[in-house]
Amino acid sequence: MHAMSCPADSRRHWPLVVLLxxxxxxRSASPGPQPPESPAGPPxxxxxxxxxxxLDGARMTADITFLASDEMHGRHTLSPDLRRAAEFLAQRxxxxxxxxxxxxxxxxxxxxxxxxxxxxxxLTVHRGKKAVAAAAPEFAALPQSASGEARGPLVFVGYAAxxxxxxxxxxxxxxxxxxxxxxxxxxxxxxxxxGRPDAMALLARLQDDAKRFAEAAKPLQEKKDVAGLKALxxxxxxxxxxxxxxYIPKDRLGEVWPLPEDVLTVEYNPMxxxxxxxxxxxxxxxxxxxxxxxxxxxxxxxxAGAGAVGVIVVRGPRSFVxxxxxxxxxxxxxxxxxxxxxxxxxxxxxPVVQMQWQAADKLLGKPRLSQxxxxxxxxxxxxxxxIAGVEAALAVKxxxxxxxxxxxxxxxxxGDRAQxxxxxxxxxxxxxxxxxxxxxxxRKDGVVDKICNGADDNASGTAMVLExxxxxxxxxxxxxxxxxxxxxxxxxxxxxxxxxxxDKPPFELARVVAMIxxxxxxxxxxxxxxxxxxGSSEAWLPLLDEVGAAGLEILYEGSTATRxxxxxxxxxxIPVLFFFTGTHADxxxxxxxxxxxNLAGMLGIGQIVTGVMQRLGDGREVKFNKAGPGLAxxxxxxxxxxxxxxxxxxxA
Length: 652
Ligand SMILES: [Zn+2]
Prior knowledge:
By secondary structure, this protein is α/β, with parallel strands linked by helices. About 30% of the residues lie in helices and about 20% in strands.
């Protein structure tokens, strides 16, 4: 197997079939999902110093095959499979002879999975001399709450949301906190964002509807009953439109879930439909709200930053996706079954309780909170202000519960500038299996598939980081700077592993001169490759121009996407680059499997990444650029204003 890795430039011209043949050869060779063999074997051709590092496609395929095998159950961060994947990575680095960064290759970080109450929480509303205590079933301490007591005048702050910046002045046209004094106050805040439902509940509902649709469609597809399928689609689509009607009027949903030309292939893809709804919502008139505006953490940190000493959270009646959910108004558990997304459960800066909306309506009096929500959603205008003459006191006493989760790190010692570190990283966790988190089951040829294998997301980036380490180590070259190969856990839960690493690094963070992130590099397609984060240093574009495009179609993006691990480094003023081949119909679905990996694409991308790595390893200066376009909630290419340039395959 080793013999195949010859210098990159000759391989690039190998016909695609040959590359895939090598890939098929190694795949058929491997009996089952055993960790691939270590690169012991005869030494590869020693690559002359000035030559490029050579990545081996068959090795990457073998590693993706293992990591994305059904036996790894989609590598959820809180599953034993993640620990197995970490052991596999550590084994590989041991065999390669790279040094651990911490005591071992696995560098654990605490992930908060819940909280234990030390005393029942209390919430009392004071009107003059009258004090009314909220009844226990009507409110609950949130697992993320800080422990402590807080008392102060009550202030309603709507969704504590801020719309995207618009106009010359770059000011938000909608700001719930504008002109509101929160110092020493208790804030009452609505979950989600104006005119937006509970996104996770909506996704779960779409996944349920997808399951129901697949069951109903199956017999019709088997009978090739086109008319029956058309009727089924029309009915299910009408239900979908009714479901989202409170948020997006029907006439805006023309493009959502159209009937496919070949009706027999009709399927209910919750991710694609969700994406279509999000796009339609983004096109609605009025203020636009970034994804994070709906996050509890964003709200509470913003309120505490404005001086609030405590927060009462309420899910308003309009944010529920179904009447049953609105009626039940279930309060969050202290130890959620699945500490899902959204920054998980790390402690918030102030005590926070959640109250059921009907209890809040009663306790907080007129105007009713439910009415205020309806007014805001209708007019997209804030309704914030003090609740006259009312004070609240709340007390929460709890202890966070954590589990240890491994990031995996290995380093290649540098030479004369070993003090400086270049980080090349990729997350190795994924979303597990249905009904975990976001993983919705799918049906393939009538068989239910529950495992979100995560071959592209992100076994592809993981395999490329491993292969970069092997190629560099076996090239015998010593970079001037130290290179740290990093595999993050908890990315799917809100970039938790990379955040933990930069918050408590096993080396001085000031030593890190740059970070390269590979997240979903396995599905190069018509959209081409996106390289993001260029605005984080003015050195990036000239360096990338020097490295070239390896014949690929590339979009060079100035902004830094928040939705992957490089964002944690960017937030510490470290220049970053993000390599990404884009989302696809299998994104976060069981269909993200190794057979759909574009190996030739990975080899082309690998060529660019090695070119960047070699120049960084050899001391290229990259200064952090504070004046760049900054962080963005959207994916590379989603905002024309921050695209630097596009090159087409010809490298023109
Ligand atoms: Zn990912």
